[in-house]
Design a protein that fits this description.
heterodimer, A: alpha+beta, four-stranded mixed sheet, 18 helices, elongated, disordered C terminus, B: Arc Repressor Mutant, subunit A, two-stranded antiparallel ribbon, 2 strands
């Protein structure tokens, strides 16, 4: 006794005997491959299937409920072989047609394709389609998607892409193609072997064909078969190659999408891991510090998602197409994504334009203090006692329970209070009077001059002078609610002629391109005593001048006097 | 020279003409069309008809409506459109001219 299958043709359920099922499957596949390049392929297939259903309905009754081989043969006799179609209608069969039909008849190996299963769907039938393709229970795929929906909706986006790219199984032939064999080592080996046999057969057929012997130019024919064989091989490798590319696009696309979505909608940020522990800049805090209103943040997020996210989504879309060898070209989808992307670009320009206004005006506040000349005529610059920097280039340091990162944007990160601390820079210039002077220059930007001044005034900076020691705070503060508008503090130590200054090692991160006659780098100036001479700052105890690295000469361009205003 | 191939080529040209002619007698669904065509030994199998009907419909010569069937899925009943009727008239006069011409040139052949 034979196994029976249950199939749905044009909405009517049939029980069909196993042999008859294989035969029907092969027949429909052959017709399909014959019409597949025609625009009305779907319609023709639907019509033909409706007629097949009608023929089968007429052949079954209460006594005989199963469609048998004889019924399929009867149906094929009525409908005719696709070979005959070729002779009787105007359709030109595509070049692959003969090959496909001959391989189909030689081996009942039907091509497996991915489709969405409209008969077993929750949303779009994507999961059940994938389940059929890989011979998996769709419930697990549904579960995986349901879980991924919670990863910032990335699963939902991926689902929508698959929905768009995978065609729905409309005809019975497609529904049959949808059901694949279980993928395991054996089936892979089997399909490889079949592929190799097929190539071998083709080769033999070409060599042994009557044409070949009849033709006098044998040599040419051998070349032709070799070229043909090579083309087939390249085609085979090409398929594998495109699948790998497709997989790469999908995989990296999803990783990138997750990163993007999590930074836009989640709390991820810049994370730095060092000896001092793990510290992070919360992306949300950066946005709040930078943008004016929550609406602006939302606008910026949407813009970022559209401008960066859409191309990523398109990469995934292309990847899925390559991976499953789906040849669809959705014109409207392309137009819609292009329009959305341009809309995102417009939003970005709008956000950037409104933000650039915020940095239009600049205000500078200068405060000058005269330092009583210390007894030793030397000023020692240092940071508060107990303050310790960690690291060298990307300086980090711990201040009791607060952890900081110092980076080249001079932003201090405080895990508890957010981004509220900023780093001043120190310069040394010649004093025009006979006494040491300390200048604190606070500056900020803003939409209007007034706003910028207000912000500059809100900057608080503290230092302490104890006879010959100047304690400089390594950070300045702005009110917690203040936006980040390029607030800066510059400290200029003015040294009178003949007097000296000493840089403690710990002040190094604050030093910024201090001019001296030997062009010594800031890093090499520390732990030395420097005296202001007529030519400029000169090292007293550096020993051999040549032992020091030279600064690049272009650095000298900025003169000491300009520096105050240039700030 | 393959005689079967030649016959098929000849049939191919007049097939669409005949489908339109059958439908000029009244609306029909593919199986009915096929019966008429088979009687005239024009078509052997039904499968051929579907792509042709679809193409004629897409060209605007035919339209169709759905009708419920007692034995199976709903049926597509095809009908000539005004464009189709006009087209058929032109084909008919071309055909008549052609038949005349062919008869005149081939009357020397004894069957």
């Amino acid at each position: 006794m034979n196994k029976t299958h249950t199939i749905n043709i044009s909405g009517i359920i049939f029980h069909i005997d196993e042999n008859a099922y294989e035969s029907l499957k092969g027949y429909l596949n052959t017709i399909r491959s014959y019409f597949k390049d025609s625009d009305s392929c779907e319609e023709i297939m639907t019509d033909i299937e409706a007629r097949i259903a009608e023929i089968f309905t007429g052949r079954i009754n209460n006594a005989k409920q199963v469609v048998l081989m004889a019924d399929v043969d009867h149906m094929i006799a009525i409908m005719g072989n696709p070979e005959v179609f070729k002779n009787e209608d105007g359709f030109e069969p595509d070049s692959n047609y003969k090959e496909t039909s001959s391989t189909n008849s030689a081996e009942p190996n039907t091509r497996k394709r991915i489709f969405r299963d409209g008969d077993d769907k929750v949303l779009g039938g994507v999961c059940s389609g994938i389940g059929s393709y890989f011979n998996f229970d769709p419930i697990w795929i549904r579960l995986a998607f349901a879980v991924s929906f919670f990863f910032f909706g990335s699963g939902l986006l991926f689902y929508i892409i698959l929905w768009l790219v995978i065609p729905k199984a409309r005809t019975t032939a497609e529904k049959l193609e949808m059901r694949g064999e279980k993928v395991n080592i054996n089936t892979i080996e089997k399909s490889l072997k079949e592929e190799m046999d097929w190539i071998k057969n083709r080769f033999n057929k070409n060599v042994n064909s009557p044409n070949f012997n009849a033709n006098k130019s044998r040599f040419r024919n051998v070349i032709a078969s070799a070229v043909d064989l090579a083309a087939q091989l390249i085609k085979g490798f090409g398929k594998v190659f495109f699948k790998i590319i497709g997989f790469g696009l999908v995989f990296f696309g999803i990783v990138f999408l997750l990163a993007l979505l999590s930074s836009i909608f989640g709390n991820a940020g810049l994370v730095s891991i060092s000896d001092a522990g793990i510290s992070s800049i919360d992306f949300k805090d950066v946005l709040i510090k930078f943008f004016n209103t929550p609406e602006q943040i939302t606008e910026a997020k949407i813009a970022a998602f559209l401008v960066i996210g859409l191309p990523v989504l398109m990469f995934i879309y292309k990847g899925v197409k390559l991976l499953f060898n789906i040849k669809v070209n959705n014109k409207w989808l392309n137009i819609a994504t292009t329009l959305l992307w341009l809309f995102g670009l417009g939003l970005s320009i709008d956000v950037l334009a409104s933000m650039s206004h915020e940095f239009k005006q600049k205000s500078v506040i200068k405060e000058k203090f005269v330092i009583p000349t210390p007894t030793a005529n030397t000023l020692y610059l240092n940071v508060p006692e107990g303050f310790d920097w960690n690291g060298e280039d990307d300086e980090e340091y711990d201040d009791e329970d607060v952890h900081y990162i110092h980076n080249r944007w001079n932003i201090f990160v405080n895990n508890e209070k957010g981004l509220n601390f900023y780093m001043p820079v120190i310069d040394v210039q010649r004093s025009k009077t006979d006494s040491f002077e300390l200048m604190v220059i606070k500056s900020s930007k803003g939409n209007t001059k007034k706003e910028a001044i207000k912000r500059a005034e809100a900057i608080s900076y503290s230092y302490m002078v104890k006879d010959s020691i100047v304690i400089l705070n390594p950070k300045f503060d702005v009110p917690e609610t203040e936006k980040w508008r390029a607030q800066r503090v510059k400290i200029i130590i003015k040294v009178p002629l003949g007097k000296s200054v000493y840089f403690n090692q710990k002040i190094r991160p604050l030093m910024y391109d201090i001019d001296n006659i030997t062009n010594t780098f800031d890093g090499d100036m520390v732990n030395h005593k420097w005296t202001m001479r007529a030519e400029g700052l000169t090292c007293n105890d550096c020993g051999d001048v040549n032992g020091f690295k030279k600064k690049a000469s272009e650095d000298d361009a900025a003169s000491a006097d300009d520096e105050e205003n240039d700030f | 020279m393959n005689i079967e191939n030649n016959k098929a080529q000849m049939r191919k040209g007049v097939l669409e003409f005949c489908i339109l002619a059958v439908l000029a007698d009244g609306d029909a669904y593919p199986s009915e069309i096929i019966v008429r065509m088979k009687d005239a030994k024009l078509l052997v199998v039904e499968g051929t008809l579907y792509p042709l009907l679809t193409r004629l419909k897409n060209d605007g010569l035919l339209s169709y409506r759905w009708e419920e069937s007692t034995s199976g899925p709903p049926r597509k009943y095809y009908k000539l459109t005004p464009v189709g009727e006009q087209f058929l008239k032109e084909l008919k006069s071309t055909w008549d001219d052609l038949v005349d011409a062919v008869n005149k040139t081939t009357k020397n052949i004894k069957s």
